[in-house]
Amino acid sequence: MVTLTESNFETEVGKGPMLVDFWATWCGPCKMIAPVLEELAPLYEGRMRIGKVDVDQNRTLAVKYGVMSIPTLILFKEGKSAERIVGYVPKKDLQSRLDRVL
Known about the structure:
The chain is an alpha/beta fold. It has a single domain (2-97), classed as Glutaredoxin (3-Layer(aba) Sandwich), CATH 3.40.30. It contains four helices and five strands. Strand 2, helix 2 (28-43) and strand 3 form a beta-alpha-beta unit. The chain is globular.
């Protein structure tokens, strides 16, 4: 997983499909979805990368992408938002939504 910040976000997201997890250390649902994302990373290797944005440390990115609740997962394709998932989603449902877009 790629740690995304305000300084590397545009470059990393522009490298191909990337699922970005907007999260915070104090967020319970964020802690629940983290292991799901870790399980998905090897399954999507070569098709999609996964990045994480700590919203407390990167508020400008959260505002820019309209993140009002966390976790918010945004799938970027060609540098643009292609899918947005807000809140905890079970692994099976998350895979289904990602597969539909990829």
